[in-house]
Amino acid sequence: MSADIVICGLGPAGRALTHRCLAHGLSVTAIDPNPHRRWVATYAAWTDELPPWLDGAVVAATVAEPLAYGGRAHAIPRSYTVLDTAGLQRSLDLSGTTVLTGRVTALDRHTVTLDTGRTLRAGRVIDARGVGRRPGRAEQTAYGLVLQRPGHDDPALFMDWRDDNGAAPDAPRSFLYTIPLGGGALLYEETCLVGAPAIELAELARRLRHRLRARDIAVRGDERVERVRFPVVGGSPGAGRFGAAGAYLHPATGYSVAAALAAADDIAEGRNSWAAARAVHHLRRAGLRALLALPPAELPGFFDVFFELDIDLQRAYLSGRTDPIGTLAAMTRLFAALPRSSRARLAAATLHLPALSHRRSGSVIME
Question: Which CATH fold topology does 3-133+232-268 show?
Answer without folding.
Answer: FAD/NAD(P)-binding domain (3.50.50)
